[in-house]
Specification:
This protein is α+β, with helices and mostly antiparallel strands and 76 residues long. The protein has a domain of 47 residues. Helix content is 21%, strand content 46%. It has a four-stranded antiparallel beta sheet, with helices on one face. A hairpin with a 2-residue loop joins strand 2 and strand 3. The longest helix has 16 residues. It is globular and about 35 Å long. The model has no long low-confidence stretch (mean pLDDT 90).
Length: 76
């Protein structure tokens, strides 16, 4: 996991001062999906650009939103 390079942040959620990110990293010859906080990786799994994996990212986002997490306020 140490040689992974960040590619994109798909979404982020906030609960008070806590943050949760869903990001894609380039890992070796493929991609890795990570659900992470600023201090820890919560979930890490191989990621392929396929509809079922994109649906998985939406499911990962929907679960905390049902529990009160929200989109962070924009800085503008």
């Amino acid at each position: 996991m140490t040689d992974a390079q960040p590619v994109a942040t798909l979404w982020q959620l906030a609960w008070n001062d806590d943050r949760l990110f869903c990001s894609v990293y380039r890992q070796g010859d493929g991609f890795e999906l990570r659900l992470e906080s600023p201090t820890a990786v919560i979930l890490s799994e191989r990621f392929e650009l396929q509809p079922r994996m994109l649906a998985r990212t939406e499911a990962l986002r929907a679960s905390p939103k049902r529990r009160g997490w929200r989109e962070p306020a924009s800085d503008s």
